Amino acid sequence: MNTATFAQHSRPRRLRYSPAIRDLVRETTINAKDFILPLFVSEKIKEKVPIESMPGVFQFTLEEVVEQAAAAAADGVRSILLFGIPANKDEKAEQAYAENGIVQRAVRAIKKEVPQLVVITDVCLCEYMSHGHCGIADRERGHILNDESLELLAMTAVSHAAAGADIVAPSDMMDGRVRAIRMELDGAGFENTIIMSYAAKFCSSFYGPFRDAAESAPAFGDRRTYQMDYANAAEALREVALDIEESADIVMVKPGLPYLDILWRVKEAFELPTAVYNVSGEYSMVKAAAQNGWINERETVMETMMAFKRAGADLIVTYWARDVVNWLK
Ligand code: PBG
């Protein structure tokens, strides 16, 4: 064989694949079961309130959030992630772990109405603290008290499990919270409750719109003392390793798109079920561009979801979860 012929034969042939063949050799697939839909339930409202910075996303009343959960399940969504907005905030986040807090009531109602839906709860204190930080604050010194916050986080997780949550998802980033939560859950008889930890959570501008939705913007300072510096990848791996040692069952990387490298490295290094959070800012940017006719929403979203799966995500938390499962049909 002369070299010219060889070159000809070794030319990449993919451009000639027919659609059917392209489908056969596709490496990555996305499935309805991969998607987790975040839902906001508020104790302060009489009917749903649109989040201006997140078109298509709402705060719902208790009754409405149950309907939303049922409708999402009917569409084919398998799991939801619940965030609560309480009527009262204080310096101890009492409504975060109140037996009749808004999330606890919502979990009970959803589990009764849609038992097959996997209910995940966000375990954090920021929505319940008058200052909007994720832990107990020492206002004078302007910082967050890590160890003092652990007990409240663990109480919050146990109250969610008691209400029927299948998975608790600590998003606060206090050190040692996975262990504290695991110990309290086991002690209270919830050995089967799963922990999905926001293991590598970066301090990010992409959370901006979420803070409108969850009414959780910090009143002073920022979250830099407990969320990670976006310049650090090795640190992210150390954070994930710690959470796994503390017995996290599922680890999450957040935000999503700007951190695909982290996602890839986490999946490669640990091979644990790995989730990614396609956060509010990522959502709002695409929505805004789509509303202006500058981008095709559906195609952009599907490409993004494929990118998450390709980078190693097993689970994707996204405000588009319902759209995606419908588009997959
Ligand atoms: C904190 C929490 C945040 C998000 C999820 N849980 C915000 C923050 O850390 O400031 C952000 C999610 C999003 O932007 O979509 N409880």
List its traits.
12 helices; alpha/beta; TIM Barrel; 40% helix; 329 residues; 8-stranded parallel beta barrel; binds ligand PBG; two-stranded antiparallel sheet; single chain; 18% strand
Structure description:
The chain has 329 residues and is α/β, with parallel strands linked by helices. It has one domain (28-327): Aldolase class I (TIM Barrel). It is built from twelve helices and twelve strands. It has helices at 3-9, 19-24, 62-75, 102-113, 146-163, 177-187, 208-214, 234-245, 260-270, 280-291, 297-310, 321-327; strands spanning 35-42, 49-50, 58-60, 79-85, 118-123, 136-138, 143-145, 167-170, 194-201, 250-254, 274-278, 315-318. The strands form two sheets. The protein has an eight-stranded parallel beta barrel with strand order 1-4-5-8-9-10-11-12, surrounded by nine helices. It has a two-stranded antiparallel sheet with strand order 6-7. Helix 4 (102-113) packs parallel to helix 5 (146-163). It is globular. The protein starts with a helix and ends with a helix. Residues 122, 124, 126, 171, 207, 210-211, 223, 279-280 line the site of ligand PBG.
Largest sheet: 8 strands, parallel, barrel
Rg, Å, rounded: 21 Å
Ligand names: ligand PBG
Any guess at the CATH architecture? Alpha-Beta Barrel
CATH-defined superfamily: Aldolase class I
Counting DSSP H or I runs of 4 or more residues, the number of helices is 12
Low-confidence stretches: none
Q: What CATH first level would be assigned?
A: Alpha Beta
Q: What is the count of distinct domains?
A: 1
Number of DSSP strand runs: 12
What proportion of the residues form beta strands (DSSP E)? 15-25%
- Major sheet: arrangement of strands: 1-4-5-8-9-10-11-12
**CATH fold annotation:** TIM Barrel
**Spatial gap, N to C terminus:** 48 Å
Mean pLDDT: 93
Structural class: alpha/beta
Shape: globular
